[in-house]
Amino acid sequence: MFRSIRARLTLWYTLIVAVIFVFIAVATYRYVSATLYENLDLSLVNEAKWIASRLDRQKPEEANAVVINEIKEHSAYYPMKEYVEVWTPDGRLFCRSSNIGTDSLVKYVSFTPDSEVVWTTVSTFAMLPPLRMLVQKSAGARIVVGVPVESVEQTLEQLVRVMAWMGPLVVLLAFVGGLFLAKKSLSKVNQVTEIARKISADRLSARLPSHDVDDELGRLIGTFNGMIVRLDSSFEQMRQFSADASHELRTPLTVLRTQLETALSSRMPPSEIKKIVARCLDEAIRMGSILENLLLLGRGDAGQASIKRERVRMDDLLEDTYEESVILASQKSIGVKIENTTNVMIWGDKQRLRQMILNLVDNAIKYSPENTAITLSLSQENGEASVVVRDQGIGIPKSETARIFDRFYRVDRARSRTLGGSGLGLAIVKWIVDAHAGKISVKSTIDRGSEFTVVLPVAKQ
User: Fold this and answer.
1) Read out DSSP for 227-244?
2) I want to staple 410 with a disulfide (CB 3.0 to 4.6 A). Which of 2, 258, 376, 416 is the partner?
3) Distance between CA atoms of residues 40 and 155, nearest Å
4) pLDDT tens, per residue, the chain with 461 residues
5) Which domains are present in the chain?
6) SS3 per residue for 434-445
7) Angstrom distance (rounded) from CA 250 to CA 248
8) How far is CA 419 from the centre of its chain?
9) Are the C-beta atoms of 55 and 86 separated by less than 8 Å?
C-alpha cells in the first residue's frame, strides 16, 4: 500500500499537518500561559497599589478601624480569592484578611528589610493550591498579597483538553483531505497510465489525453505525446526503410536469377554466356554498393562509424576530387570545372569528405543532360568553409527538397533506377556533414539545375 505515490503523499500531508498542529498547540499554550500569569501578576500589583493608597491617608500605627475594614471588605469581595497581610516596619501585624486564619503569609516569603518588591510562588500554604505572592514595601508598611494560581491552571488544563481532542480530529481531517487531494491530483496519472499501457509499436497513433492546465502533469503529458510522435515517425521510417531496402535488393537479385536461369536452361555460345556473366557482375557490384552504404549508415546511426580527426586542406581535396569527377562526367559528355578556391583548413576525416564531394558530383552527373557543365567552388567566410556543387540538370521541385536526404528517397523513382541510383548517396552526404558539425542546403530550379552547399567549421589555428 505504501509503495503507491497516493499513499505516500497522503501520509506526508497528514504528518506535516500533525507537526504544524503540535507546533501551533505548543506555541498557543505557552502564549496563553504567559499571558494569564502576566495578568495575574498585574492584578497583584494593582491590589498592592490600592492597599497602599488606603494607607497613604495615615501611618499604619495611627490608622483607624475604618481603613482596616476597607481592606478586609475589599479582599473579601475581590473577584478572585485573595489573601492580604499588612505589617508595620517594626514587625507588628496591622491587618490580615479573615481567610488566612491563624497562619501567616510572611513566613513563606524570604525578604530583607531593604527589599522593595519580592515575587514568589508558594505551594505549601494552608494545604491550598499554589499561591502567587507579592511582597511590596510601601508607605512605611510591608504589604503582602497572594492569589491562588488555580484559576490559571484550570484555564490551561481546559486548553490542553481542547487541544487533546482537536488533535486527533485535525489529523483525521488531514488524512481524509490528503487522500482526497492525492486521489484527485493523481486521477489523471492513472488515466494516462492506462492509455500508455495500451500503446505499442502497432498503436503508436494513440495519444495521451491532453491536460488543459500548464502544470507539471500537463508538461509531462506533452512530453510523452511528443515522444510518441517521434517514435511513430521513427517506426514509420524504419518500415519505409525496410520496404525500400527490400525493393532495392530484390531488383538486382531478380536480374541475377533471371540471367543465371537463362544461362542454365539453354545452350548458348560462350560470347553470350560472357555477356550474362558481365551483367550478373554489374548487379552483384550494385548490390554490394547498396549493402556497403546500408552498413555505413547503420553504423552511423548506432554511433559506431569511425570518423577520423585530422587537419585537411579542403582546396587540395577539391583538386583531387576534381580529377576523378572529370573522369566520371566524361562518360556523359558533361564538363566539370572549378570556379574558385581558397586555402581552407578544417578538422575532419579526409576519406569521408572526399566521399561527400564525389557523391554530390555523382548525383549531379546522374540528373544532368549531356553537354552541360558541373561547377565546383570553395570559399571561406566568418570562420566557415563553403563547398558548392552546381549543375545544370533537371532540378528538384520545392515540395521535394526537404526529403531528398532521406534514405532511398527519389524525386523520380523510375528515372532514378534507370540511371542506376540507389537513393542512398545524398543520405550518406547528410550523415558525413552532420558528423563534421556542418550544414547542407540546396537551391534548385526545375529544368535549370541545382546547387548544393555544404558549410563546415574552419579549423582554428
Assistant:
1) HHHHHHHHHHHHHHHHHH
2) 416
3) 13
4) 456 777 888 888 889 999 999 999 999 999 999 999 999 889 888 888 888 877 766 555 555 666 677 777 776 666 667 888 888 777 788 888 777 777 788 888 777 767 778 888 887 776 567 888 888 887 678 888 888 888 888 889 999 999 999 988 988 888 888 888 777 777 777 777 777 777 766 666 666 666 666 666 777 777 777 887 777 777 776 776 676 667 666 767 777 788 777 777 767 777 777 887 887 887 787 777 777 767 776 666 666 666 788 899 999 999 888 888 888 888 888 999 998 888 889 999 888 898 899 889 988 998 888 889 999 999 988 889 999 999 998 888 888 888 888 877 766 544 444 455 567 788 888 988 988 889 999 999 888 899 999 999 998 76
5) 5-154 (3.30.450), 216-301 (1.10.287.130), 310-457 (3.30.565.10)
6) HHCCCEEEEEEE
7) 6
8) 52
9) yes
CB 459 within 8 A of CB 390: no
- Tell me the three state secondary structure of residue 368: coil
Whole-number Å distance between alpha carbons of 256 and 282: 10
User: What dihedral do alpha carbons 102, 104, 107, 110 form, nearest 10°?
Assistant: 180
CA atoms within 13 A on the CB side of 105: 31
C-beta pairs of 41-44 under 8 Å, 24+ apart in sequence = 41/119, 41/132, 41/134, 43/80, 43/147, 44/132, 44/133, 44/134, 44/145, 44/146, 44/147
Q: Environment class of residue 435 by beta-carbon count within 10 Å: exposed (0-12), middle (13-18) or buried (19+)?
A: middle
Q: What is the pTM of this model?
A: 0.51
Amino acid identity of 423? G
> Closest Cα partner for 13 from 216, 206, 175, 224?
175
283 — alpha (psi -120 to 50), left (phi > 0) or beta? alpha
How far is 50 from 56, CA to CA, in rounded Å? Answer: 10
CB 424 within 8 A of CB 352: no
d(CA 145, CA 142): 10
With cell 499554589, the residue in question is 130
